């Protein structure tokens, strides 16, 4: 692979030994080999003058398959949002429409400095999303959505327990570790209300047997929590725990409506919380107790969730929103800029089980890097580069993005995708999808 120098920047390393380093960075064979002082020549040099150089953002909860529905499911609460819009759209996907949706999502995320995401796809056509991840150079933990139960689920999303298990295992065998190790597979049961206890128990056992992640949702909405308790006789987290779906290999999106016992359960089991502040606000779901979680040592990372409930896939928005919400809840000293930055990078890598590979700028780690200009009116005069990054910078300030040593955004332009073509295809595919879904 070509060698790469990034010079004249301010390095914000993130990770447990976070540092601010004024200097350079060197990449060889897809990995960081030098920080600060670097060799004088390389196959390519990126000038980071006026910029911060950061580990690429790791979004721990995304739905690539939903990017095509952006703006078509607004102003609804969670269960109505799912039943009247999202499930109908997902059921109407074809391999081509899902492929375009994945291209749209990845193009947006890479352009905004996100280099890796954990994504829950739909019930069918997950292979189309995997192909896009492989082709674009993105890094992802991907799970096929599992749904073998639930009220008002359209026929196009229905599957038996055996079908859910068989297809997930097939994808695991075919794709786990592919694309030079950039692709990892996970089991992705949607949530308690759409999965039988049999399926959830099988997922818990298979994940441990295969050594892969579990990615699910829980306690996002008060009505959802009440329905789970009525159905199972247990609180949401207690039910997942009883079935084996907690632990350091498990990431649970949202976790808003938790009691003290459930918070302690997350801490005791090492289960990861995948916090989606903008989505939680837009769906009117609530505000997670992130400060209390962090004080208990719970791992909390960030994700934009899906484009129809955000409507951006923008890590900058999630960092800023997460910090501001917790300051409103618990005081201005809580959830600092460093906390938010770590949640968007290092803690995201931990949630995906990739903290030894990505999430911080360290010698030996994969070169997943974003270069963000602070030479803008909205960031000036930026005496504290970390403050400027978290509270002032925007996705449009990203200048260069590198994944596994490959430049995927250069001077603000995608190298693996044509942005104009992606937009054109997205408009075409959504028009046809809306007709198939019956919501045109």
Automatic annotation (TrEMBL):
CDD domains linked: ATZ_TRZ_like (cd01298)
Keywords: Hydrolase, Metal-binding, Zinc
Cross-referenced InterPro entries: Amidohydro-rel, Metal-dep_hydrolase_composite, Metal_Hydrolase, MTA/SAH_deaminase
Entry superkingdom: Bacteria
Residues of the Amidohydrolase-related domain: 52-408
Name assigned to this protein: Cytosine deaminase-like metal-dependent hydrolase
GO terms of molecular function: deaminase activity; hydrolase activity, acting on carbon-nitrogen (but not peptide) bonds, in cyclic amidines; metal ion binding
One family name in Pfam for this protein: Amidohydro_1
């Amino acid at each position: 692979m070509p060698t790469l120098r990034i010079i004249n920047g301010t390095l914000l390393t993130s990770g447990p030994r976070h540092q601010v380093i004024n200097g350079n960075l060197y990449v060889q064979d897809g990995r960081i080999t030098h920080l600060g002082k670097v060799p004088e020549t390389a196959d390519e040099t990126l000038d980071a003058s006026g910029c911060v150089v950061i580990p690429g953002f790791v979004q721990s909860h995304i739905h690539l398959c939903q990017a095509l529905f952006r703006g078509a499911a607004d102003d609804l609460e969670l269960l109505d949002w799912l039943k009247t819009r999202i499930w109908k759209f997902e059921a109407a996907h074809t391999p081509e429409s899902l492929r375009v949706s994945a291209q749209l999502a990845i193009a947006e995320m890479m352009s905004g400095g996100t280099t890796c995401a954990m994504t829950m796809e739909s019930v069918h056509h997950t292979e189309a999303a995997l192909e896009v991840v492989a082709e674009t150079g993105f890094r992802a933990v991907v799970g096929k959505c599992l749904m073998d139960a639930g009220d008002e689920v359209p026929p196009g999303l229905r599957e038996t327990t055996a079908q859910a298990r068989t297809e997930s295992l097939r994808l695991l065998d075919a794709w786990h570790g592919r694309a030079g190790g950039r692709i990892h597979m996970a089991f992705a049961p949607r949530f308690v209300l759409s999965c039988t206890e049999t399926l959830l128990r099988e997922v818990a056992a298979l994940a441990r047997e295969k050594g892969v992640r579990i990615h699910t949702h829980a306690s996002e909405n008060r009505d959802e929590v009440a329905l789970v308790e009525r159905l199972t006789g247990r609180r949401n987290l207690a039910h997942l725990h009883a079935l084996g779906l907690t632990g350091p290999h498990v990431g649970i999106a949202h976790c808003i409506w938790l009691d003290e016992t459930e918070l302690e359960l997350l801490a005791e089991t090492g289960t990861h919380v995948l916090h989606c502040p903008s989505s939680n606000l837009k769906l009117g779901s609530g505000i997670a107790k992130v400060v209390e979680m962090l004080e208990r040592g719970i791992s909390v990372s960030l994700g934009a969730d899906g484009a129809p409930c955000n409507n951006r896939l923008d890590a900058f928005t999630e960092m800023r929103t997460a910090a501001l919400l917790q300051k409103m809840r618990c005081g201005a000293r809580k959830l600092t800029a460093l906390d938010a930055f770590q949640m968007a990078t290092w803690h995201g890598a931990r949630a995906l089980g990739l903290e030894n590979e990505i999430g911080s700028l360290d010698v030996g780690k994969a070169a997943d890097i974003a270069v963000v200009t602070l030479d803008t009116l909205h960031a000036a005069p930026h005496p504290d580069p970390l403050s400027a990054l978290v509270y002032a910078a925007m996705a449009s300030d990203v200048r260069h993005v590198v994944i596994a040593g490959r430049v995927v955004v250069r001077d603000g332009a995608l190298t693996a995708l044509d942005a104009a073509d992606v937009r054109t295809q997205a408009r075409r595919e959504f028009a046809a999808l809306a007709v198939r879904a019956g919501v045109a």
